[in-house]
Amino acid sequence: TTQYNYILTSRPEPAVTLITLNRPKALNALSSPLFAELNEALREADNDDSVSAIVLTGSERAFAAGADIKEMKDKEYADVYKNRFLEDWADMTRIRKPIIAAVSGFALGGGCELALMCDIILASPTAKFGQPEINLGVIPGGGGSQRLTKVIGKSRTMEMVLTGRMVSAQEAAQWGLVSRVVAEGEGEVVKEAISVAKEIGDRSQIAVQAGKEVVNAGKPLPFNFMATGRIFHGLFATKDQKEGMSAFAQKRKANFVNA
Ligand code: CO8
């Protein structure tokens, strides 16, 4: 198996691949090198006939606190457009095997969107979901606006996207954002996700993949990832994106000028 710098991979069960995001000091901020590794590990598991299902997790403190703001803050529209910044995020939606997100702690911004691209989300009671991009002068660019609307409805999505408020695990479960909240305790949510993955592994793998395919066929995004990604890119032409992201990096409150 491949060696990675920003993720860990293991086989906790013969038919289950566990991928652990591993940038603890940055709360698993999703830098582009991290995402490239994640895509590679997902492809590797998808192509391995001995793997039935994939579990994706972070740390106790953070599933992922979003795209890497320090990497993004000085980027200009020309950079992000020309280099298709973060557009490989949607690659994982083409993985055929089930992906189960085991979420503890923060799942924010791109981290919440990452969980939403998985097939099943299990939450620890400590999980907190949010789309705080608005505080940075940008929007959820990774399909979250569209996926959340499908899952929790327009009003709740608007509240999350426009205020950036974090939603608790219990609220997320009530809203149907996650399939359930597991018992508290360190490692519980990963254990439970592995057990669901193992259960899936005992079924016919052809039927499992067909099951994933038909469920997904019923929910095409009304406004696709690329389109929302482009609007996200467009905001890199504003002063407020520079201010919002610099303010985060400098640990101060943003002073938006609406330009
Ligand atoms: N990027 C970079 N570094 C981060 C990030 C991040 N998203 N989140 C946390 N960190 C770093 C902090 O800067 C800090 O680093 P250092 O120790 O060097 O100062 C370290 O992680 C620990 O974080 P805090 O000290 O802030 O920890 P707190 O417990 O005080 O706060 C929070 C935790 C509330 C999670 C806070 O860190 C936070 O608000 N983080 C940012 C959340 C956020 O705004 N996420 C959205 C990012 S934008 C995005 O995801 C866009 C996706 C677009 C996809 C487009 C596809 C086309």
From TrEMBL:
Keyword terms, alphabetized: Lyase
Protein's UniProt keywords contain Ribonucleoprotein: no
Gene name, Swiss-Prot/TrEMBL: Echs1
Organism: Hypsizygus marmoreus
UniProt entry tagged with the keyword Transport: no
A GO term from the CC aspect: mitochondrion
GO molecular function: lyase activity
Homology family: Belongs to the enoyl-CoA hydratase/isomerase family.
Protein name: Enoyl-CoA hydratase, mitochondrial
